[in-house]
Amino acid sequence: MNKPHISFEFFPPQTPEGVEKLTAARKRLAMLNPEFFSCTFGAGGSTQDRTLDTVLKIKSEGYEAAPHLSCVGSTRENIRALLHTYKDAGIKRIVALRGDMPSGMGSIGEFQYANELVSFIRVETGEHFHIEVAAYPEFHPQANSAREDMLNFKRKVVAGADSAITQYFYNADAYFRFMDETHKLGITVPIVPGIMPIMRYSQLARFSDTCGAEIPRWMRKTMEGYGDDVESVQNFGRDVVVQLCEKLIAGGAPGLHFYTLNQANASLEILHRLGYQ
Ligand code: FAD
Q1: Residue 198 pLDDT level (bands cut at 50, 70, 90)
Q2: Which residue lies with its CA nearest to atom 41 of ligand 1?
Q3: Which CATH number fits domain 5-273: 3.90.550.10, 3.20.20.220, 3.10.105.10, 3.40.50.300?
Q4: Which of 113, 43, 122 is closest to 87 using CA atoms?
Q5: What is the per-residue pLDDT across 145-186, written as a single tens digit (0 to 9) for each?
Q6: Does the beta carbon of 50 lie inside 6 Å of ligand 1?
Q7: CA dist., res. 50 & res. 13, Å (int)
């Protein structure tokens, strides 16, 4: 089977033990030669320093590091400073997002949507960064309609995005349909499926409710039936995700981006079963 490129996403660890564990996880994941490791960024700047520390550490280990950068609640001045810090550190790729304002946090800031951030990055730093943006095959939870969401996705590409990473999904048809629609709109940038390995059902259900990713009923019912039996949930989840990835690869997905939740095992087991060594 053809093996598209892979990438792994982390969140910035909060403690020295977390940093150590993540370094160990990264070492194992690096054996599969990923294209890059990315690190999330808390909207409103809550993890700004830890995201920077994490990407600098990844870079110092000799890997390509891609910070996520969310613009909601921020100012042009803040974003400009951060872009120049990343550029000076030799970072070449950024995942540009709107983000979600944490509840109770102040004003929306100077950027309303991710397309404005993409334009700003291009104005400030030209072609220095490879810009990734988010895509939603099952549509963004705040979208007025599927059509408007597609057009809003196109705005990010027109503003200068080089490629996109999707929200996770478990229904391959949603991705293939999304790809067909993007082609009809003349969008040709690579759109890489985001893959969420299944570790704990309750955690996955919670995430999915907030971000609008659907867990199909047959999967929910099966995992609910396992109750506290984490091993059965993980075995089932692995089978489902391996089959999903096989379909995506066979259907021409240009890459696979794993939401690792800072754990190596689940992603590694899936990738080994797909033939990545
Ligand atoms: P946008 O593309 O701005 O879209 C947001 C909503 O507004 C959509 O409903 C869209 O249809 C609508 N919209 C967009 N542009 C316009 C416009 N010009 N006019 C009117 N409506 C418009 N969040 C974080 O806080 N930190 C992270 O590190 C992070 N990493 C992520 C990585 C990936 C791969 C993905 C898929 C998501 C990530 N998120 C992260 C979550 C993301 O911030 C949220 O999903 C957020 O709600 C939307 O961000 P966006 O960049 O997709 O926004």
Answers
A1: very high
A2: 99
A3: 3.20.20.220
A4: 122
A5: 999 999 999 999 999 999 999 999 999 999 999 999 999 999
A6: no
A7: 7
